[in-house]
């Protein structure tokens, strides 16, 4: 059998975020839409995700994965970078600007997202613990430190370093996880930054596609 | 003035890890040693790290940064990737294997390191809290889940995907942060994996250099 020409990504069969676009396949969908690459989705149940067949693709039993011919990848950061390297539109051509855009991808995933994940774990996994209420302000302050630094760097420009890049795609995606915390609203420039990301046609198409899957109907145009 | 030909990295003037190699400049030093690239270090004090001059290089007021001619980068993951892309020795040449090695870098930084950082925050920032002792087992179990999955994938081979790569460099660096937790010792194959990383000549040279800085003397051969 010849390898598929269209990339296939795995997504939650029924996303725990109820189609609000916080699952990590959204980052990959958005990147694919930005570069105009068609893709197919293969929904995976929570049970199947932890089975050997899926773990062969994703050792940690998560989504998304990305298959394109003989290539199988995991980690949304790596997948977005792969897409960005193989299509125009998500990384600058000038080598130094390209390296800086990639640095912002890592900053999103390894500097800004960890305190957000820690906060999310407290809300999702420790809500019934005696320390929950007392701990939350500490976690919020750790996030505020990062948001303040990010807002200082962003200043009053539209994107982190020149034109919109994979770095912005990843940073906006990470900041979106703060939605229910109310913390983003303390930084008006970051709210506007996230809003600019969500206003992009590619984001909207990706969002519609993952919501349609959750609601059980294909998006218009499929 | 012509741009410097030798890359310059910033490091802690006096590392809070007391020269045990856990500061993130170690990841960059190791990568530079693997590819045989000479480099210079510029120590930065805790105070200077939070000043505008350093934040212009590193918006979050951290180390390391990397300057090479007109290029200024931050985020150890991005710096290691940049080094790996511009020298032989840290990424396979075959494109799919190269993409998979990069995926392991992201897995180290965005899947394996976050629960380790959460545990570290509990130890460093919440040791005086009433919940400290009760919470630690929860955090340890979150780490064990990842370690078990990683050990399953590694199996009985030396490195995560073929030859040693930037993915292994980053994963070993992340696992080293578990040293004082005792958790790594529950997974003999991961202990051996980390030991293989530490046994590399490049690791040893990088470790000696950062320790020498902490101890206030240059390593032999400088």
Topology:
The structure is a homodimer of 222-residue chains.
Chain A: E1 8-12, H1 25-35, E2 40-44, H2 46-49, H3 52-55, E3 65-68, E4 71-74, H4 76-86, H5 95-125, H6 132-154, H7 166-176, H8 188-198, H9 201-215
Parallel strand pairs in A: 1-2
Antiparallel strand pairs in A: 1-3, 3-4
Describe the overall structure.
- 2 copies of one chain form a homodimer.
- Chain A is globular, with a radius of gyration of 18 Å.
- Chain A has a 4-stranded mixed sheet.
- Chain A contains 9 helices and 4 strands, in the order βαβααββαααααα.
- Chain A folds into 2 domains: about 100 residues, Glutaredoxin (3-Layer(aba) Sandwich); about 110 residues, Glutathione S-transferase Yfyf (Class Pi), Chain A, domain 2, CATH 1.20.1050.
- In chain A, β1, α1 and β2 form a beta-alpha-beta unit.
- The model of chain A has no long low-confidence stretch (mean pLDDT about 95).
- The first copy, chain A, is α+β, with helices and mostly antiparallel strands and about 220 residues long.
- In chain A, α1 runs parallel beside α4, α1 runs antiparallel to α7 and α5 packs parallel to α7.
- In chain A, about 45% of the residues are buried.
- At the A-B interface, β4, α4, α5 and α6 of A face β4, α4, α5 and α6 of B.
Using the coordinates above, name the CATH class of the largest domain in chain A. Mainly Alpha
Note the overall shape of chain A.
Answer: globular
**Major beta sheet summary of chain A:** 4 strands, mixed
Indicate the low-confidence ranges of chain A by residue numbers: none
Average pLDDT of chain A, rounded to a whole number, is 95
Tally of extended strands of chain A? 4
The most extensive contact between chains is:
A-B, 48 and 48 residues
Helix content of chain A: 40-55%
Tell me the fraction of residues in β-strands of chain A, as a range: 5-15%
């Amino acid at each position: 059998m010849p390898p598929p020409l269209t990339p296939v990504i795995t997504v939650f069969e029924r996303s725990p975020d109820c189609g609000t676009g916080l699952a990590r396949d959204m980052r990959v969908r958005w990147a694919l839409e930005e570069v105009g690459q068609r893709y197919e989705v293969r929904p995976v149940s929570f049970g199947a995700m932890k089975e050997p067949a899926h773990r062969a693709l994703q050792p940690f039993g998560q989504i998304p994965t990305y298959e394109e011919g003989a290539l199988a990848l995991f980690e949304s950061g790596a997948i977005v970078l792969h897409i960005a390297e193989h299509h125009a539109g998500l990384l600058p051509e000038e080598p130094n600007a390209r390296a800086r855009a990639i640095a912002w991808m890592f900053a999103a995933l390894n500097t800004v997202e960890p305190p957000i994940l820690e906060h999310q774990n407290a809300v999702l996994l420790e809500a019934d613990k005696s320390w929950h209420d007392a701990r939350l302000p500490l976690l919020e302050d750790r996030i505020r430190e990062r948001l303040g630094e990010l807002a200082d760097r962003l200043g009053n420009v539209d994107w982190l370093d020149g034109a919109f890049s994979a770095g912005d795609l990843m940073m906006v995606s990470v900041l979106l996880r703060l939605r229910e915390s109310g913390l983003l609203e303390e930084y008006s420039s970051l709210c506007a930054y996230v809003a600019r990301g969500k206003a992009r046609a590619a984001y909207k198409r990706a969002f519609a596609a993952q919501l349609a899957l959750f609601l059980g109907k294909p998006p218009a145009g499929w």
